[in-house]
Write a structure and sequence with these properties.
alpha+beta, OB fold (Dihydrolipoamide Acetyltransferase, E2P), 5-stranded antiparallel β-sheet, 4 helices
Length: 246
């Protein structure tokens, strides 16, 4: 039996531990490596793996990973993978990859990261990338405006009030406005990060989730406005004559 010529005492070196998933949030990242990898036990299947390093904040230096199933028996899965690749290209500003995925490396952008149970082992937690934004916080296709896109700010919880704004005097709480019946539920869904499927009309996707337009419209449909209570009607019969007039 052959082996490696070596001498090593494991008691003198701390073992590597699996990295802890980062908390749910939006992070500034760059792609530091990318590769195509085969799927174990599934000949012909492969995915693109993008390793992204967080560049700012308390989680700086940690990595998050996205895997795009570009070779898969389900065409819809492949469409989602290339839609995600398009989002990465948009937010990095590389609209045409000429020769290598390395052209996407070291370009700053943001990712919306979710921390939750892993699909392969629900007893453990992992990270899932659920959206891409450019370095200024704009969603794919709206980058380059020089400021955070209002829809992206609403969808991802960005704050927009300037720190120097004078404090307003407290006022009585206003009654909530009834939702407008004219709001397009699909437009509301797009503002929340859902993207029209590029190869499958009638579908939208967000991360790895895909939904029919009709199902998505039902999810984002504005609830019916409550009807105003009817004013009490005057009692029937003759109007009473006040005592001073009798």
């Amino acid at each position: 039996m052959s082996g490696i010529n070596m001498s090593f005492n494991a008691a003198t070196v701390a073992p590597n531990a699996a990295p802890e998933p980062v908390p749910t949030g939006i992070y500034d990242v760059i792609i530091v490596s990318s590769d195509e990898k085969g799927v174990n036990g599934k000949p012909g299947q492969a995915y693109y793996q993008f390793d992204m390093q967080i560049t700012d904040g308390p989680e700086k230096g940690k990595k998050v990973i996205d895997r795009l199933n570009v070779k898969h028996p389900n065409p819809q899965t492949v469409d989602i993978a290339y839609g995600t690749l398009s989002a990465i290209c948009h937010v990095t500003g590389v609209m045409q990859v000429g020769q290598s995925s390395a052209e996407l490396h070291n370009r700053p952008f943001k990712v919306n990261v979710y921390k939750g149970p892993r699909s392969d082992d629900p007893t453990k937690e992992g990270n899932e990338i659920r959206g891409y934004l450019d370095s200024k916080g704009n969603p794919p296709g709206k980058q380059g405006s020089g400021a955070i896109d209002p829809a992206a700010a609403a969808a991802f919880g960005a704050t927009s009030a300037p720190a120097s704004a004078p404090a307003a005097a407290p006022s009585a709480p206003a009654a909530p406005a009834a939702p407008s019946a004219s709001v397009d539920p699909l437009e509301a869904a797009r503002k929340d990060g859902w993207i029209p499927h590029p190869q499958s009309p009638g579908y939208h996707y967000k991360g790895q989730d895909v939904k029919l337009d009709t199902d998505l419209a039902a999810m984002y449909a504005a609830p019916a406005a409550p009807s105003a209570p009817a004013a009490p009607s005057a009692p029937a019969g003759d109007t009473a004559i006040p005592s001073w007039a009798q």
